[in-house]
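Write out the bound-state structure for zinc ion.
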Amino acid sequence: MSSERPELHDTLLRIALRESKNCVPSPTAFSVGAVIFLPRSLVTTKSDTSNHLDELHTLLEPFFPTLIGAAAAIDEDAGQEDPGVEVQGLILSSSYSRALEGNTHAEANALTLLERKISGLPLQVQQSVLALTGAQPANQEALPAAVYQAILSRSWMYATMEPCSRRTSGLRSCTDAILASSLKRVYIGVQEPPDYVQCEGIHLLKAGGVEVLHVPGFEEECLKAARRGLE
Ligand SMILES: [Zn+2]
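---
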């Protein structure tokens, strides 16, 4: 299958892989990269209108970089794929293992950075997102959190590796961080190998109502990137 435009999921996974290269190599932890993407045009016109993706894109475009690529069409009714459909979107956040202070992970960091960015958006933009999506914060202080969840519920995460489900450090897993958020779809490059623990991220995310999809063709590269520093 050939396409003139680079395949969207490949492009986003490559961005996540590039992020993983920023990790300070660790002999006791994986190096992972993660990206959060807000798609604009989807083929499912039903969700386009009910999710207000185009209006959201217009509101947020001045604050986030745009990405355009081809992707398989998502037709929820027919369950069919039509390759090569153009999808636009915004890269809302990207991060990597140990980017933030402490023993932090890529996926949780990408979520934290997005939450921070959204708190910093002009009040008028935050209120417009609320008006558009119908999210209802309990009070003024809860406004950024409501905006964050409203945007995240329409976004996709890309991670070079399956989100962790158990951490030897006892800290909160990325799977729990994702389940505590409104994110509903995660694309991964490779399953977590049992180097440290038996990961149940995919299983737990699916059980919690999060779609987990595999972007094929990056397994070796993602594993190699993850194990940098382990030799
Ligand atoms: Zn993790």
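---
The longest strand covers residues 85-96.
The chain has one domain: 8-48+66-226.
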